[in-house]
Amino acid sequence: MTAIREAIILAGGKGTRLQSVVADLPKPMATVAGVPFLEHLFRHICAQGIEHIVLSVGYKAETIRSYFGAEWNGVPISYATETSPLGTGGAIAFALKFCRENDVLVFNGDTFFNIDLNSFYGFHSERKSVFTMALKEMINPDRYGTVELSETRIVKFHEKRTGLEKGLINSGVYALNKVKFLELPLGEMFSFEQDFLEPYVSKWHFNAFLADGYFIDIGIPEDYYKARARFALPSCSGKWTLFLDRDGVLNRRKIDDYVRSVEEFEFLPGVLEALKDANSIFGRIVVVTNQQGVGKGLMTEQDLNRIHSFMKNEVERAGGRIDAIYTCTALAAAKDPCRKPNTGMGLQARSEFPEIEFERSLMIGDSISDLEFAQNLNMPCVYITGEPYKNELNLTDVQAINLFEIVSYLKEQQKSAFSTDKRSVT
Q: In the predicted model, what is the mean pLDDT of residues 31-35?
C-alpha cells in the first residue's frame, strides 16, 4: 500500500463563533486538554506516517508559528502564510506549492476525524483518483451539508437541511492530486466548496471513502466543550475502576427531595445501555452516593436497600453490573468522613477491593461535591451537566450531557486503532 507523506492543514480561521468561550486566537489554537486543538491533529496524523506538514495560516499566524516552530516531534513544518484572504480553495492551492508529493492529504484545522489514513490513502491510490473525500455518517446532521453517493462516487452536495435522521457529511479530510488541481482555472482567491466541489462534482470523478471513527468540529461552543471532554479523558483499560454518583447520573434526581421508594426510582435515558458498555471497559464499577434522606427520617435504611437492590438487578438484567454500592446517610451538618466530598466511601471501596488505584479510576458525578471527592482522591472526574456544556467550572475540563455520552467516548477509545494520547485529568 502506498505510504502517505505530506499533509496540508488549514489553520487560518478566526473562530468568530468561539469568541464567547475562547480568547482571541486562531480557531485551531483553542485549548483542548491542555494543548491547542491543532496539536491533537498533529499527533493523529504523524502517528500514521506523515513526514511533512504544511500549515495554511492567516489570522494571527505568528501565534501558531511561535508555538510549533519549524518542526513538531521531528516532523518538519512549512508555513503557507496568506498576506490577504485567499478563500479556502485559494489557501489550499497556495499551500500545495510547498508540497513535494503529487498526492497530498488535506485537513481542516478545526475538525478531528479518527480515521485510518493509510487505508484512506490506499483507497485513493488504488482508484488512481484525483480527489477523494472522507465521509462520516452522522445522526441528525442538521449542522452540516450532506453528500449524495452512487456507489463510491460523489454525485451531489446538499445544503444544510433540518429534519434529517442521518446523512453522510464531509469530514474535512481529503486526498488531492496536486498537479491536476493546480491546472484548474480557478484564480488566486476562490472557495474550495463553491468554486471547486460544487461545479466539478459533475466533471471529475470524486471518490468517497466512508469511515466510522470519532468526529468533532469545534466551530461552535457546545462542540468545543465536547472536544475538551473527549481529549481530556484518560485511556481507561480493564484495570480501571469506575466510580458513579447515583441521583442525576443513574436516575432522575428529585429536585429538593429524595427518591424514597422503588416506585419513584427512574433510570435516566441511556443509562442501562451505558452500564452494559462500561461492563467491558472497567474492572470495577461502584456507586458512591450521599443519601441524607435517611438521616432526616424521610426514608429508612430498608427503603434505601430496596431501591439499590432494584437498581442493581435492573442493571444486571440489561447486561451491565454494579460491583458495590456505598452510601452515606449522615446529615450534611454532621461532617461525617464518609460523606462526599470527604473520601470515606472511596477508601471503603479500596478496602473491599484492594486492586483499586485512585490514579487509575474515573469518577462521574453531577455536583461540585462529586468533583471535589475525585480531586481529594486524585482521580479524574467527569461532570454530568444534563444540558449543553458549561464554562464556569474550574475543577474539571471533562463534561458530558449524560452517562451514555461519556461511556460512548470511552467505548470509541477502546476500538480505535489510531487514537491520540490520552492524558490523566486532575
A: 85
CATH code linked to domain 6-223: 3.90.550.10
CATH 3.40.50.10140 fits 235-415, yes or no: no
Q: Which long-range contacts (CB under 8 A, 24 or more apart) does 295-304 make?
A: 295/329, 295/330, 295/331, 295/334, 296/331, 298/258, 298/260, 299/258, 299/260, 299/261, 301/329, 303/260, 303/261, 304/329
For the entire predicted model, the pTM comes to 0.75
Residue 209 CB burial class (10 angstroms; 0-12, 13-18, ≥19): buried
Residue 77: count other Cβ atoms within 10 Å of its Cβ.
17
The domain ranges of the chain are 6-223, 235-415
* Catalytically annotated residues: 245, 247
Determine the Cα–Cα distance for residues 314 and 268; give it in Å rounded to an integer: 13
Q: What is the mean pLDDT of residues 69-89?
A: 95
Measured CA to CA in angstroms, residue 272 lies from 211, 314, 384, 404, 407 at distances of 27, 8, 16, 9, 11
- In tens, the pLDDT along 40-52 reads 999 999 999 999 9
Q: How far is CA 342 from CA 119, 239, 376, in A?
A: 50, 24, 7
Beta pairing class for 284-290 and 241-244: parallel
pLDDT at 423 over 60: no
Cα separation, 26 vs 59, whole angstroms? 6
